[in-house]
Specification:
This protein has 169 residues and is mainly α. The chain contains 8 helices and 2 strands; from the N terminus they run H-H-H-H-H-H-E-E-H-H.
C-alpha cells in the first residue's frame, strides 16, 4: 500500500503549503481509494455506499469530527466536482453542507455561510479530517495484518493502483 502512503504524504505537503482545496480533494479521494480497497469481494464497484461505510466504520467520522458519512460524501461531491460546499445531497436537505477551517484553533469558528437560517451546516477543521483519514488507514492496516482473507483481497486490488513509470531517456 505504498501508493496510499504517497497519497497521505501528498495531503501533508498540501497542508504544509496552505493548499487547502487540493488537500481536501486528496482527502476525499483518499477515502474513495480506501473504500475501494476494502469493499467486499463480491461488490464490483465502489460508490456512495462504500464511501459512507468507510467514513463511518474506519474513520469514525461522527465521533472524531461530528459529521455523518453521508455529510462527508456530499462534501466530497461538492469539493471534487465543483470545488464548493454544494452538492445535490446538501441542496436537497439530505446532508449538511461542510465548511472548512484550518490552523490550530481550539474550536472552529463559524463562517457567515454556515449561519444561514433553516440550515444545519457544520464547520470542520481540515487538519481533523486529514488526521481521521490517517488514523483510519492505520486501523485498516491492522485489520489487513490480522485477516488473511482481507489481506489477499487488498493485495490483489493494490496491484491495480496507478503505476508511475519514468519516460525512456
Amino acid at each position: 500500500m505504498s501508493k496510499v502512503d504517497d497519497h497521505l504524504d501528498a495531503i501533508a505537503l498540501c497542508l504544509d503549503n496552505d493548499l487547502r482545496t487540493p488537500a481536501l480533494v486528496l482527502i476525499y479521494t483518499g477515502i474513495d481509494i480506501m473504500a475501494a480497497l476494502s469493499r467486499p469481494a463480491l461488490v464490483k464497484k465502489t460508490g456512495k455506499r462504500q464511501f459512507i461505510k468507510w467514513a463511518e466504520h474506519h474513520m469514525g467520522c461522527q465521533e472524531r469530527i461530528g459529521v455523518s458519512g453521508l455529510d462527508l460524501y456530499a462534501a466530497r461531491c461538492g469539493i471534487v466536482h465543483t470545488a464548493t460546499a454544494e452538492s445535490s445531497l446538501s441542496d436537497d436537505g439530505n446532508a449538511r453542507r461542510i465548511f472548512y477551517s484550518w490552523g490550530h484553533r481550539d474550536k472552529p469558528e463559524p463562517t457567515a455561510g454556515a449561519e444561514i437560517p433553516g440550515r444545519t451546516d457544520v464547520v470542520v477543521r481540515i487538519e481533523d479530517l486529514a488526521d481521521a483519514l490517517c488514523a483510519s488507514v492505520a486501523l485498516f492496516r491492522r485489520e489487513v495484518r490480522d485477516d488473511p482473507v482481507l489481506a489477499s483481497l487488498v493485495r490483489r486490488r493494490s496491484g491495480k493502483l496507478f503505476m508511475v513509470r519514468a519516460a525512456a531517456p
